[in-house]
Structure formats: structure tokens, C-alpha cells
Amino acid sequence: MLDIEVIEDPAAAEASLDPIRTRILQELAEPASATQLAAKVGLPRQKVNYHLKALESHGLVELVEERKKGNVTERILRATAASYLISPAALASVAPDPRRFADRFSAFWLLALAGRTVQEMGKLIAGAAAAKKKLASFAIDGEITFRTATDRAAFAEELGVAVTRLVDKYHDGGSGTPAGRAGAGATAAGGRKHRLVVVLHPALKAPKNPTELKEKDQGND
């Protein structure tokens, strides 16, 4: 079972968004039969079987084992992943494409880059899982508080310069030579390209405590 599976097929995406099927996928984090699931989700076994067949046909559920119970064969199933993410590829021609425009100060371009990351990582994870290999990746997540918009702009500028310097230092422009010293038109021979995306955006404000809101409202009465 994968930690996260990215869904690219539109029909599979539609199937996964059904509330009942979402609940079934959640319950199938642990292997179970249709009978066991029926008791958990409060539906007739026949209806659960209907949803299981749909999920299995789209590759979201997999067979773990079959158990003989008298004249009946009980199928034990589980979800293919603990969590799912729908790829922009499922939206086909209306999916965001960062190649349509490039504006490093555009929130929409940031979204397009994030969508491409989901799509590419989904393919890479699936490929690594099929080959039974570990996928090499790296990510940093954090928060920073800027006193002014000027500070934020200065930080972004310095970050861009620092990243460019690192790329110049480590990028293989051909024959193992860093880009800054590679000849014109040189290409990396045997090197593996990596995608580099750096983003900076405002953090969401934490939701106010319901108790504090209630006390404030009472104080205004």
C-alpha cells in the first residue's frame, strides 16, 4: 500500500469522490470483506459489493486474499493507498499548464507549478513502486514572518540569487563540468535531470478559537 496515490484517470477520480466510496476507501486502510465493510458503513452487503467492484475496476482497491467459507469464497480487499490526490491530468485540456505563461510574481503561475508537481510526482512514485525502488526527492516546509513588504521582496530577491548560484555550482552542463565552465551547447551525458521549484506565499491565518469568539460576542451584548 502506498502512502499517497495520485489519480490521473478522470473516471477513477469521479469514482473516488463519491462520499460512500470515500468512506469505503477510508475503512479499507485495513483489509476487510464486503460483509465486514457493510457492518462498518451501515449499508447492505450487496450495495457495498457494488461500490467495491467500481473501486476495484478503477484500480483503487486491490485483492489481498480469498477465503473459503463453506460453498462461498470471501474476497478480502484493501485500498491501494492510505491517501489519494487527484492529478490535474484528470482535468485533461482544462488542467493548468505552467508553460502557457511564466510570471514568478503570479499566484496563478505558482498554482500551475504546484499542479505540475502533483502530476509529475504521481508518475514518478508509481514508477518507483512498480520497480520496487526508492524515489530520491527533497522538500523543505516552514514559515517565516516579514515585518514589511519590502523585507519580503528583499528576501525573495536574495533567495533567487542564492538558488541561481547553487544551480550554477552543481548543474552538470556536460562531461561532469559545472554549467558555469561548460562549453556552449554542452549537454549532460548520463546525468539525471531534477525539477527544482521554490515557492513563497502568505500563510493562512489560524482560525479563531470558537470559545474566544463566543466570549467576545457575549461581551458585546
UniProtKB/TrEMBL annotation:
<protein>
    <submittedName>
        <fullName>Helix-turn-helix domain-containing protein</fullName>
    </submittedName>
</protein>
<dbReference type="InterPro" id="IPR036390">
    <property type="entry name" value="WH_DNA-bd_sf"/>
</dbReference>
<dbReference type="InterPro" id="IPR011991">
    <property type="entry name" value="ArsR-like_HTH"/>
</dbReference>
<dbReference type="Pfam" id="PF12840">
    <property type="entry name" value="HTH_20"/>
</dbReference>
<dbReference type="InterPro" id="IPR036388">
    <property type="entry name" value="WH-like_DNA-bd_sf"/>
</dbReference>
